Amino acid sequence: MKLTIEHLSKQYRRDFWGLRDFDIELTPGVIGLLGPNGAGKSTLMRMLATITRPTSGSIRWNDTDIVTSPDDLRAVLGYLPQDFGVYPNLTGLEFLEYMAAIKGLDAPSARRRIDELLVLVNLVHAAKRPLAGYSGGMKQRVGIAQALLNDPQLLIVDEPTVGLDPEERVRFRNLLSDLSGERIIILSTHIVSDVEATATEIVVINKGCKLRHGTPENLVRMLEGKVWQWMIPSAELSAIKQKYVISGIVRRDNCIQVRAVSESAPSSDAQSIAPTLEDAYLSFVAQNGIRQ
Amino acid sequence: MNNLRILYHMMRADFLERTRRYSFLVMLALVMWIGYLSASGQFRMRVPPDHIGIVNSAWVGATMTITVTLLLGWLGFYLVKGSVSRDYETGVGQIMATTPLSRRLYMLGKWLSNFAVLAIMILIMMLEGILMNLTVGVEGMDLLALSAPLLFIALPCMAVVAAVAVLFESVSWLRGGLGNVIYFFTFLAALISTDITAVGNPEKTNNPYVDVAGWRIIGESVSRAAHAAYPNSAGGFAFSITNLKSAKLFYWSGMIWTTDIFLSRLFFMLIAIGVVMLASLLFDRFNPSRVLPNKKRKQSSLRESALETESAPVSQVHLAPLTGTQRRFHFDALLIGELTLLLKGQRWWWYSVAIILIVVEVFSDVEITRLLLVLSWTWPILILSGLGCRESRHNTGQIVFSAPRPLVYQLSASWIAAFAVLAVIGSGALLRFLIAGEILSIMGWMTGVLFIPSLAVALGVLTRSNKSFEVLYVLWMYMLAQKAALFDFMRMLPESHWYFYALIAPALCLTAAFARQRQLMKG
Asked: Of chain A residues 143-172, which have a CB less than 8 A from chain B?
């Protein structure tokens, strides 16, 4: 099972590329897509989910080109878009039954699967109520359930934890880890902790281009000896921000404890500390600059 | 001063948002085309039987005014309605609700932007009329005679249309498709109250205070001029787009603007402001708690259960893997899903009316049954209008279209579901035709159940909106009830070419399929 992306590009306007010359080969596991807003994550996700056609390049699912034959992938695809709606007059159960029919599940399998998923996303008690009365978090959980209906081999989830409370968020992360055995899961987010907890591989993306690709450990290792922590007077903060990539600040009395990425010690009293994925991510994006 | 600034910016933002939409350009093109037909004398206003005015500035201005009040008075409502709904849907309304913006000011802003959109079309039409008059006019240009009817008659009419659009948006049950249908009949009633057939009849007095479209004001003046030239003229006035071979020309110098006319037009401006004030009283200011009591109870019980659910203990669940055969496509399941989507949410009285119509059709005279069938097939208008555009309206497109073969499976299933609903709802008439041995009526019935869902799917996919079908279909069925042969797809009238629609139906389905395919390709 593999998903191969070669020279993938999406041009929206003459002078604006959503994604440019993107290459990657994915095998089973959880792949975290990290990038700032507007980096091109959702563009990539929509092309992988066969919603948007690329301007150039290819996407192959087990050597089948999904641009020309999207149905081969669609049969085994689960997709949770970042922004989606539901039919307000249907109950949660009816909506999932409808989605199961659209995905081609037979009635007994659909019923069993929906029962399992309702328990999994904690919506058993609300299943027979109209979706119009669901909270944002509950709708998000319906979205998660529909993405898992057909036991997908490729699961694409775009900002899945938006609207979930902390408990549900942890539950969803665990669910992704449990599901990751024999399928490819692509998780897009800008919340580093979500990726850190679940991803076996991370792709950092910015301005429509791939910046880094590796395991979380490898990406963090790239910053060994480059993350520093020291105290500064409050007045110096803006000057420090100009000079270094700041990954954290904590106010203490009249001073500020700064955490920053730098090739060498920024101050004589700066201490080298263990890097985190957040340090690495901020550093990679800062080196590349933010898209205007 | 601050309020004026707020009003200006609300109107500006809303105006820009709307004039950058495709629908605005389509309507503008339509208005310009109508303007061209009017100014070039192809769209004729005549005093029966065959008296028409010489094409001069006054005649062009009056013809343009009547055509534009008809076109924008009806379609303009649908064009401008939706700005408050958009604020609900996008959440911008909730942000506005947290500002000191008052309900009255908000509604005034919406009205002004509605009015500006309609007024700009009239002004463009006026410029077109001036240009046409300068180039093809047989007499010299009289700017006042051309522009005054548009400014003093059409603009106040547009002010009322803009205000009614705001009013409909401030009442939750008028905000959707039902409001679209109700407006059609409201507009029709307003035109009928004008009673243009009585123009020139001294026994019937002209009340300009019910003449929102201003048709009778113009008609009276034109009719008088025709009568002066040809004392045998029948009075009243009509439209014609065909050439009258033996037309008798008369000279009309334009309206005589009396104080009474000005006061009546001012009255409609005040009515418009009054309607906006009423709308501001009814408007809930994006407060979800200001809903009907039973709806409120339902929602609060939902919230309670939501809380209960959200705090429920977490259990370990095992997801059983699915095999390939379990994933094989089953059309029957999808069809049931589409039927559920169509019918879910309808109240008991909706089904009651549908059943009563079916039963009454069986036991009525065949002629009455035909009329009842028109009503039966109009009844599910709000259900049918969701076909082809439901995914856009509810933002489910990304989920639905990432499933296998969305074009072949989902679109065809939704068409068949609508076909089934129409067949059931028209089954009383079918049975009656079978009993009466009306073979042609049975074939007309079959054409109807093929044509209606095809039209709905095609319009839904092409426009991605339910509005277009609601607007066109209600007019269509009204014309059918009026026995207009051109609109007859169900063989109500022996002289109609109903069988054409049996050919148009598959063409509409193909159009819908091509359009959906393009949408899927473009993403």
From this structure: 143, 146, 148, 150-151, 165, 167-168, 171
| Paired strand residues for A258 | A230, A249
Nearest CB among B315, B345, B403 relative to A103 is that of B403
Chain A residues with CB under 8 Å of B341 CB are 87, 89-90, 98
| Residues in Cβ contact with B279 at an 8 Å cutoff, skipping those fewer than 6 apart | B107, B111, B163, B166, B167, B169, B170
What does the pLDDT look like over A173-199, one tens digit per residue?
888 888 887 899 999 987 888 888 889
User: What DSSP letter does each residue of A196-238 carry, written as one string?
Assistant: HHH-SEEEEEETTEEEEEE-HHHHHHTTTT-EEEEEEEGGGHH
Supply the pLDDT for residue B304.
46
Structure tokens at B284: 């809930």
Which ipTM did the prediction report?
0.77
**Reported confidence tier of residue A291, pLDDT bands at 50, 70, 90:** very low
The string of pLDDT tens digits covering residues A53-108 is 999 999 999 989 999 998 889 889 999 998 899 998 899 999 999 999 888 888 88
State the average pLDDT for chain A: 90
pTM tops 0.80, yes or no: no
Report which secondary-structure segment, H or E, holds A250.
Answer: strand A245-252
Token pair of B400 as six digits: 């639905």
Cβ within 8 Å, pair B306-A97: no
Separation of alpha carbons A261 and A280, rounded Å: 9
A107 and B308 within 8 Å at the Cβ level: the answer is no
**Which of A79, A102, A180 to probe by mutation at the B interface, max B CB count within 10 Å?**
A102
DSSP classification of residue A36: -
pLDDT for position B93:
85
Question: What does the pLDDT read at residue B244?
Answer: 63
Among A79, A89, A151, select the one facing B322 at the smallest CB separation.
A151
* Average pLDDT, integer, range A269-278: 93
For B481-516, letters b (16+ CB in 10 Å) and e give eeeeeebbbbbbbeebebeebbebbeebbebbbebb
